[in-house]
Structure formats: C-alpha cells, structure tokens
Amino acid sequence: MYDIELKRITKTYLGTDEPAVKNLSLNVEKGSIVTLLGPSGCGKSTTLRLLAGFERANAGSIALAGKVVSDENTWIPPEKRGIGMVFQDYALFPHLNVFDNVGFGYKAKDRRARVMEVLELVNLKGYEKRYPYELSGGQQQRVALARALTRRPVVVLLDEPFSNLDADLRVTMRVEVKRIIKEAGATAIFVSHDQKDALAISDKIVVMKEGVVQQIGSPREIYQYP
Ligand code: ADP
Ligand code: ADP
C-alpha cells in the first residue's frame, strides 16, 4: 500500500518556460522514508510544495493515504491533507513556549496528553516552558519535529532538515529523525542535496535532475556499483 502517489506530475511556474518538475511519477510505501536527492534547482522543493499543497501542478495527480488531493478536478487545501511539515529554518513561533509551539492549532481533548507524548518521543520532556531562543539548534529541530507529529499525520515532509546543524549534531539528528519518524509510524519524504543524509536516513533514494527522476533505489542500489 502506498501512502504517497504522484502520477505524471508537471509543474511550470508562471513566467518560466521550462517545467520545474516534468512528468514525475513516484509511489512511496507506507511507513517508509524517501529522500529526494539532487543539486539545487532540480525540483526537490517544488515536489515537496506540490505534495503539501503550497503549489498546484499543471498536470497529473497526487494521492495521499489513498485519497486524491490534487488532480484536474480535485483540490484539497494544505490544512486538510493530513500532512506534517518540518521547514529548513524550523519556523517555530518565537513568542510561544515549547508546549504551545507543539500544541499549536491542536484543539482536541487530548491536547495536553498528546503534546506530552510527542515531547517524550523527541526527548524534550521537561522543556515545555522554554522558549525557542533558549534552545540549541538540535533542540529547536526536535520541537519542529514534535509539532509536525502532534496531529498524527500519515505523511511528514521535511525540507533540508539538517542544513542548519553543525557536523556533529547533524550525525546525531540523522539517527534521531529516523528513529522518531519510524516510532511515529509516519511515511516521510525529505529533501536534501547531501548524499550522507540520504544514506543515513532513507529506505529509498530518488535521484532528481532537471525536474525528472534519474534513478530510484535503496541506498545500496544507488551507491553500490557492479
Ligand atoms: P530544488 O529544491 O531542487 O533546489 P526547486 O524546486 O526549488 O529546486 O526549483 C526547481 C526550478 O524551479 C528551478 O529552476 C527554480 O529556479 C525554479 N523555481 C522554483 N520556485 C520558483 C518560483 N516560485 N517561481 C519560478 N521559478 C521557480
Ligand atoms: P530552495 O532551493 O530551498 O527552494 P531557493 O533560494 O531556491 O531555496 O528559493 C527560495 C524561494 O524563492 C522559494 O520560495 C522559491 O519558490 C523561490 N524561487 C526560487 N527560484 C525562483 C525563481 N527562479 N523565480 C522566482 N522565485 C523563485
């Protein structure tokens, strides 16, 4: 079963001639972590934004958890797609403490319990009352990840999650992000231009170039030469 299905997606931005993404098809199995890997400008962020619903494709269809969210006749807005997002700069609310960042917009009865549960998952129990500026980069990333998981999303999208971390922290957070996503049972797509990130975290790597998929495979298949 696939949690993410892209079928022949093409996206050309207004005022440009060349599509940013060309006729792209991709299926992501439930519970797996897939990395979109490739140089700047190859269409990784565009693919992520199409999945999130921040952009609309010119052609093709997108289904999440078996439900079409975007095609010629269908448009489900971002907030109704059941997606959690982690942005490159974490995008935490500076005036809210950790608890309120993680619980932001989550109004269910189990709010308190759920926030504590995801904080435990990301190893930040005891940090509820801290503010983002009081946290290290790695801790801020944990908060961002927790916030992305609060609503129990089927799909989590991560945009260059390691690019603002120093080398040591990067090694730690690769392992941590993988553990957290697996424990949450989410299906994840993450964007990177770093092969080491992709190797450490992915079940599958999608190598992109100039808006098309060049190669798809497990890290072994991509990096082992005959
Ligand atoms: P990547 O994430 O791999 O760096 P992007 O998806 O950001 O690639 O960009 C793919 C192509 O689309 C690039 O040529 C980029 O300049 C172009 N592009 C991205 N966003 C926009 C936009 N909002 N308007 C016009 N062109 C864009
Ligand atoms: P990234 O590769 O992480 O998307 P960029 O610096 O390429 O970072 O893009 C930053 C912002 O500028 C994005 O919102 C993207 O949509 C926009 N952008 C990128 N390329 C273009 C472009 N050629 N024309 C207009 N906007 C662009």
UniProtKB/TrEMBL annotation:
Residue stretches making up the ABC transporter domain: 4-226
Coiled-coil positions: none
Keywords of the record: ATP-binding, Cell membrane, Membrane, Nucleotide-binding, Translocase, Transport
Range covered out of full length: 1 to 226 of 353
Enzyme class (EC, first level): translocase
Entry's Gene Ontology molecular function annotations: ABC-type quaternary ammonium compound transporting activity; ATP binding; ATP hydrolysis activity
Domain of life: Bacteria
EC annotation from Swiss-Prot or TrEMBL: 7.6.2.9
Name this protein carries in UniProt: ABC-type quaternary amine transporter
Any one GO CC term of the record: ATP-binding cassette (ABC) transporter complex, substrate-binding subunit-containing
Species name: Natronincola ferrireducens
